[in-house]
Write a structure and sequence with these properties.
The protein has 309 residues and is of the alpha+beta class. Helix 1 runs parallel beside helix 9 and helix 8 packs across helix 10. The protein starts with 15 loop residues before the first helix and ends with a helix. The model has no long low-confidence stretch (mean pLDDT 93).
């Protein structure tokens, strides 16, 4: 058994790929077991067979060399905050689809069998809405269920915005620059480098000449699909049924786990993705938690897993 621990997952594991390429012989294995995933409820075990990839960018729009008085220059100077808002608003159409040129060209279509399996995931729209901190309504790409949108379809999200005066009270400023942080969750066959070129093509076509812009790329991770019928997946399936008393469901996870992608691409090793987080664990949010009874069931499931192997 070989144990690999790395601490850069939240920034896209930028150094892991080079380490794997340098130490391929040391890291040889039949398969990888990864714990970075979750189940649907304390009584509903799951095996994750698909992960979305990630492409992350920081977009800056620049106008005047510094902030201006909006009374003196408003109406004659194009506001970078307005330009940025229009650019990011145009990245989706009315059907919830991403408008970057060629964005869906390489997206692998869901098969009838896979859509049938995903329908069996016992997670209602009402439950998703509650887990998502109760937005007024759910939203997404037309023609797909929310389960499909959450794990099997690509996305483009605005993760942060900055421009001008954002303190308490008022200040009539016309900002000199504006920034948006943009991430895309990618599905298998989408190339993060190609997606970056698609974003650049969109900006070149749509950004007005009254401003300049620059784009910085951060972590890039391709999406992953793993095999259903391997010995290790069968061992995991049996282990979960032995511990939880019910058959596990197979599901796609909407997030990214760069190490799974790197292990598959660089080492040619498939992964069993068997973790025990819950949808209401508040990932990346205040009071992130771990449900202790499920944690202990997870320990027992791993014991059964190795015994089954």
């Amino acid at each position: 058994m070989k144990v690999l621990i790395e601490g850069e997952e939240e920034i896209g594991s930028p150094n892991l790929g080079a380490f794997m390429r340098e130490h391929k012989d040391m890291l040889k294995a039949d398969f990888s077991l990864n714990a970075d995933s979750g189940i649907l409820a304390p009584h509903i075990p799951a095996i994750v067979y698909g992960l979305r990839g990630l492409a992350y960018f920081e977009l800056w729009v620049h106008g005047p060399e510094h902030d201006l008085h909006s009374g003196m220059f408003g109406g004659a100077v194009h506001n970078p905050a307005q330009v940025l808002a229009e650019l990011i608003a145009g990245m989706h159409d009315k059907k919830g689809r991403v408008t970057l040129p060629g964005y869906y060209d390489d997206v692998r279509k869901l098969t009838k069998e896979e859509r049938k399996n995903l329908k069996r995931v016992p997670r209602s729209d009402k439950q998703i809405r509650a887990e998502a901190a109760n937005p007024p309504r759910l939203y997404g790409e037309e023609g797909y269920t929310n389960i499909e949108r959450l794990g099997a379809r690509p996305t483009l999200e605005i993760n942060g915005l900055y421009s001008g005066f954002i303190g308490e009270g008022s200040k009539t400023v016309l900002p000199g620059k504006a920034m948006a942080k943009i991430s895309m969750r990618l599905v298998p066959d989408q190339d993060p480098n190609k997606v970056e070129k698609q974003l650049i093509a969109y900006l070149k076509k749509n950004a007005p000449k009254t401003v300049t812009w620059n784009l910085k790329a951060f972590g890039k991770t391709p999406g992953v699909l793993t095999a259903f019928d391997s010995i290790q997946v069968k061992a995991a399936q049996k282990a979960l049924q032995e511990v939880f008393g019910v058959k596990p469901v197979f599901r796609r996870e909407g997030g990214s786990v760069p190490v799974v992608s790197d292990i598959q691409r660089i080492l040619g090793i498939d992964s069993v993705i068997m973790g025990f987080g819950l949808p209401d664990d508040n990932l990346h949010a205040p009071n992130e938690k771990q449900h202790i009874p499920t944690f202990f069931k997870g320990i027992e499931a791993y014991i059964h897993f190795f015994n089954n192997l």
